[in-house]
Amino acid sequence: MVVFFKKGSSTVYAVGSDCELTNDDDKKLSWLLGGARRLSAKSVKGTYVGPRKEMLTPWSTNAVEITRNMGLEGISRIEEFTRSESETPAFDPMLQHVYQNLDQKRSEEHTSELQSPHNLV
Predict the structure, then answer these.
(1) Paired sense of beta strands 96-102 and 37-38, if any
(2) Which pLDDT tens digit goes with each residue over 36-61?
(3) DSSP secondary structure string, 68-87?
């Protein structure tokens, strides 16, 4: 399952967990993620830039290791997504992907427009 945490107006963290998170787990994750609050929704609407679903980022690896040191079990992945006001934001296609809405799969399909050369960083 994927649980979403939001920080400010533009940052969303997707937390992959093998089990249901408790209120205590939510508090620990909120602290770790700089005060981000857990969203009750199973999806988040909007255009977001984040890591490619196929790539586990070093940031995620470190964040998951920290959760284990905090006594949180079952966290498999934590990734950061940044909201974009543009439907076609600049991004690095080698490392990132543009998502139209974030959901449990976080695997929205690429569109040909988002892969065009003028959108490359």
Answers:
(1) unpaired
(2) 999 999 999 999 999 998 889 999 99
(3) HHTT--SEEEEEEEEEESSS
